[in-house]
Each structure stands twice: as structure tokens, then as C-alpha cells.
UniProtKB/TrEMBL annotation:
The keyword Transferase does not apply. The lineage of its organism: Eukaryota, Viridiplantae, Streptophyta, Embryophyta, Tracheophyta. It comes from Lactuca virosa. One of its GO terms (molecular function) is heme binding. Its cofactor is heme. Pfam families: p450 (PF00067). This is Cytochrome P450. Keywords: Heme, Iron, Metal-binding, Monooxygenase, Oxidoreductase.
């Protein structure tokens, strides 16, 4: 929501897409959420910039592995920095800019096949809650955009986007926004 509230143009595009698909007095249903590509691009871009778990679950090598010019010994703990990968300029143009359009018209998803974007991990240890998160977050954001206008208690320029690093990534300053029923 922070990224949407910081950019009224993106918020308007999401709202227009939701209204076009759901209708003026419709109910937001999971079956209709599937047909909202821009909403899903916004969610993916948010997950790219604001990972909830920046360091993935540690792995351990079962055998000696050669990666490029490096040799990783057997039984080495490997920690994947997904946060850094999601901001790597080799894979992302303007990597620090919130730009949902980068996910439109391509097949990059969070199912673990595109290693530049793995907010839920990859392989056998991928987060088992990823499909649920995909559905619930889409429904929540669509509902927030469809049913409410949002008022900020202070100017957009004063919103703090800094994070606190730990096992999970938290906002340094929580978002304060007031929902006003949309008419």
C-alpha cells in the first residue's frame, strides 16, 4: 500500500483495472482477480523491492560443488541473499525504482524458476504458503483499492521507506493511512 499511496498514477491504474474487471457494484472474487495483470505486476514489484524474508532458509551442500571459478566444499552452509538479487543492476534496470511495468509481458514469476526474483525461495525448500499468499494479497489489495480512498496524515514526501533488517524485513516506520469508503 505504501508504494501505491506514494504514486497516485500507479494507484489509479490499479483502481481502473479493478473497476473494469469487477464492475461498479460487483463483488471481488478470486476468479476475477486472476484477470488483473497490472495488479499482479504491482504485487510482484512490491515483493521485489520489499522482501519479507531477505535471506532465504540456509542450504547445505551434499557434495563438493564448483561454481564458476569457486569450489564450495561438502557440508558448507549456503545462505541466499534474495534481497540483493532482487536489486541487482545486472538483472533490473533502475533497480531501486518502483516500476510494476517491468513485470508486464514477461514470464517472470515467484515460483522459483527466475533466480533474479525468488521472494518465496526455490526448489524443495520453497515457501509452501506461496500459492495462498498469491491469492490473499491479490484479494486484499484489490479490496483496498476498490472500496477505499486513502488519506495520509502527512505529505507523501515524509513517508519513510527504510527497512529494519533481521530474520524478516520490517518497515522502520509503519505506514499510517486512513481508509475512507469510496463512493
Amino acid at each position: 500500500m505504501t508504494e501505491l499511496l506514494l504514486d497516485p498514477d500507479i494507484f489509479s491504474k490499479v483502481r481502473e483495472e479493478v473497476f473494469t474487471t469487477i464492475g461498479k457494484y460487483g463483488k471481488i472474487q478470486e476468479a476475477k482477480i486472476i484477470n488483473l495483470p497490472y495488479l499482479h505486476a504491482v504485487i510482484k514489484e512490491t515483493m521485489r523491492l520489499h522482501l519479507s524474508v531477505p535471506l532465504l532458509v540456509p542450504h547445505k551442500t551434499e557434495t563438493e560443488v564448483k561454481l564458476g571459478k569457486y569450489v564450495v566444499p561438502k557440508d558448507t552452509k549456503i545462505i541466499i541473499n534474495a534481497w540483493s538479487m532482487a536489486r541487482d543492476p545486472r538483472y533490473w534496470d533502475n533497480q531501486l525504482t518502483f516500476k510494476p511495468e517491468r513485470f508486464l509481458g514477461n514470464e517472470i514469476d515467484y515460483k522459483g524458476k527466475h533466480f533474479e526474483f525468488i521472494p518465496f525461495g526455490s526448489g524443495r525448500r520453497m515457501c509452501p504458503g506461496a500459492p495462498l499468499a498469491h491469492r490473499v494479497v491479490g484479494l486484499m489489495v484489490a479490496s483496498f483499492v476498490y472500496h477505499f480512498e486513502w488519506k495520509l496524515p502527512h505529505p507523501r514526501e515524509e513517508i519513510d521507506l527504510n527497512d529494519i533488517f533481521g530474520l524478516t524485513l520490517l518497515r522502520a516506520t509503519p505506514l499510517l493511512a486512513t481508509p475512507v469508503p469510496f463512493k
